[in-house]
Amino acid sequence: MEDIVWYLLSTVALLSAIAVVMIPKPLYSAFALVLHMFMIAGLFAMLDAHFLATAQIIVYAGAIMVLVIFVIMLLSLQGAEERPSLLFSVASFAIVAALARYIVPRLDAAFGSSGTDLAGTVKSVGELLYTKYIFPFEAASVLIMVAIVGAVILSKREKKDAA
Amino acid sequence: MPLNYYIVLATILFSIGMFGVILRKNTIVMFMCIEMMLNAVNLSFVAFSKFHGNLEGQIGVFFIMVVAAAEASVGLAIIISVFRAIVSVETSDSNELKL
Amino acid sequence: MEWLILFLKVFVVFQVAQGLASLCVWVERKGSALIQDRIGANRAGAFAQTDILLLKPVMPIIRLLGVLGIINTLVCDAVKALFKEDFLPENTSNFVHSLAPFMGAFPVFVAYALIPIAPDFTIAGYYIRPQVASLDVGILFIFAMGSIAVYGATIAGWVGNNKFSLLGGLRTAAQMISYELALGLSLVCMVILYGTLDLYEMIEAQSTLLFGFLPAWGVFTQPIAFIIFFIAGMAETKRAPFDLPEAESELVAGYFTEYSGMKFLLFWLGEFAEIALLSALMVIMFFGGWDIPFVHYPETWWGALIGHAVFMAKVSFFCVLQIVIRWTLPRFRYDQLMTMGWKMLLPIAMFNLLLTGALKLLM
Q1: Do A13 and B55 touch (CB under 8 A)?
Q2: Which domain does A67 fall in, by range?
Q3: Number of structural domains, chain C?
Q4: pTM confidence score
Q5: Spatial separation of the C-alpha atoms in residues C130 and C121, rounded to whole Å
Q6: pLDDT in tens, C237-287
Q7: Partners of C215 in the beta sheet?
Q8: CA-to-CA dists, residue B46 to A127, B62, C295, angstroms
Q9: How far apart are CA C154 and CA C151, in angstroms?
Q10: Is B51 within the bounds of a domain?
Q11: Deepest of A8, C222, C342, C343, by most Cβ within 10 A of its Cβ?
Q12: Would you call A73 and C137 a contact, using CB atoms and an 8 Å cutoff?
């Protein structure tokens, strides 16, 4: 049962990732990426990282992608770009396959095939975040603040020049 | 599922994202591909964390998400201001150093 | 057996969601008529006659339902929508056009999986918690579903392929993201107060008394959070006074201008299901769920049934209250909307969060 869910999630994740790259219209790319984010969230949930799965949906699917779709719609980019060539895609898969061929046997030897019973619940992640990693956490909030101010300045400048 | 399945999946996703950045000319799509690469790395982090029994990988993912959110706001603001200047989001159109 | 119980839970909760949404539709039509001093729907089925002897005893009930407008809302509207032409604007893909109402309604119904609808009970040796999924992330999941509900309206606005729809979709995205912040912060206050993310445990935490006489409901312990949650939640449902995305005097019908028939009805259903979901969340977090002061429910099926009835009564009250507000208040101006979201609700919510944290530390 779990295997079927895993294959389903990873297949859809792969297909939607390819769709992001291959679809000429940016808006459809964005839709494919939203689907991709959900699949990744599902994989997180399968790895017992419940907090991150939810955070993935809230942050990526709920905030970042809405912003991206917002921008695409605002700039009304209907997309006239040509499709990226298939040759490159095939080449990329060849490289990846070669890489995977090299990595996989070494991983199996190093980690074994069974996971630990670690669960990334809200409580455990939160505890670590607010004790050991409190400084990076606060720094991250400053980073967000700087990003907000930066975004406002970047998108406002045009108006100031005109006035 | 054993760890290597997750890692192979993450590797493939990362390289799809990377090729997207290389092949596409639309900056918004390139931006989305970067997000996809970050996601692939996140996936490998969470998988390693699970198989290592160490929660700190998930903390790393949390901070990647924070950085991605900051990157999204600033990146899209830059894309919008470039669009205002040259009325295009294609990288091939922004070929002048001065407007 | 486990699967059967799970299936029954899903079935019951889905029926509750749909029932509440239908109730909202009826109250919307009849209540709006009352508020505007009209009579409202009272014809369809009101004069029903039959020659079949077997159906004779049922006819008075059908006639009563007809007079009350229930047949009109639940049967006639649905049949009309089913047979209506499904209009598709030029140069749009049918797939995306159909995806939008689905994306609008789907997350709302998924979020119901987290709503506990009755107290725990034991039946035939099985201990049952009437909640489809008790996830570790609890209310965060509902918040996540709320944050992806914005896609439906946004996609619909884009696929309409005209300026009005697009403006409606953009307004929706901006409004929902703005009010999500205040909504989230008021939720965080409640999470800090109860020390749990699980909705069931939140209800249990409210079953005590404050000062010996006041029920420890969230509305008495966190009045500011309640007001913020109520306002921000109403903004999330995109209805008057927050119906800027579909402002009919400016934007025709906003993001669903190009929708008709069943797709339009699906938007409607999602909207009303969202109202009911918001009411359920308010009852769970601020009004003690099925809790009545000084009453303890027995852990039997009839105890759970009474608890469910109390819960539904409270939820219905808030559904009706929201509809009354929707038909009473005029629409905001767009700058007023944004000012209220960012300059009023957000700072107040942050201050409230600070206060809650400080009080929690001191106590």
Answers
A1: no
A2: 2-132
A3: 1
A4: 0.85
A5: 8
A6: 887 787 777 766 777 777 777 777 788 888 888 888 888 888 888 888 888
A7: C209
A8: 17, 10, 46
A9: 5
A10: yes
A11: C222
A12: no
